[in-house]
Design brief:
globular, 43% helix, 191 residues, 6-stranded parallel sheet, Rossmann fold
Length: 191
């Protein structure tokens, strides 16, 4: 991607960073845990240095009776999720000015006030980190694009339980969105 265009899209005043589902139950299952945590923490730190809003999504299950039958089937097919209290805890701790948003779907735009918050702050670019690349990250990126936001995927700060699914998702998203390493994104913000 042309550096000039990237500089225009990643303007700190118009950017937000999303740490998608960095919860213990997911972080402990990914194929590249150490690299993922290091890159994600570094990118979050850089965002904070430039006063870029940091949002954490947090899986917050509905009471079982009210959970979607589709979601129940999906969770069963994945071998279940550890909904123990420490499994739901965030593996990266939010700071005072970060925002944690509970959610029940694989898109940050469904059932939350995320879009309204971005529009109120005149944010046009969403940098995505988190788990799983092929599920919530890609779903949120697609929804962001459909709503007129620029999704930027931090390629080394997203992950999955399946390296193959992760790579396939990055290949799909490369055709539609901006993909950059966490270091490349930080480099633009640090200019």
């Amino acid at each position: 991607m042309e550096q000039e265009l990237l500089d225009e899209i990643l303007v700190p005043d118009k950017s937000a960073l999303v740490a998608w589902d960095v919860q213990n139950m997911l972080v402990n299952r990914i194929f590249n845990k150490q690299e993922f945590l290091q890159n994600t923490k570094q990118l979050i730190s850089t965002a904070r240095q430039h006063d870029i809003p940091v949002f954490f999504s947090k899986i917050t299950p509905l009471p079982r009776r009210f959970e979607s039958p589709v979601r129940k089937l999906f969770i069963k097919r994945m071998g279940g999720l550890n909904y123990s209290p420490d499994g739901l805890d965030l593996a990266i701790q939010p700071e005072e000015h970060d925002t944690v948003i509970p959610k029940h779907t694989a898109s940050f735009f469904v059932g939350t006030h995320f879009e309204q918050m971005l529009r109120n702050a005149r944010i046009s670019t969403i940098v995505l980190t988190g788990i799983a690349t092929e599920i919530g990250v890609e779903s949120t990126a697609r929804d962001a694009s459909n709503r007129g936001f620029f999704p930027v995927i931090a390629t080394d700060a997203v992950s999955s339980r399946s390296e193959e699914a992760h790579e396939r998702s990055l290949q799909n998203m490369e055709k539609m969105f901006i993909l950059q390493s966490s270091q490349e994104i930080a480099g633009v913000w640090n200019k």
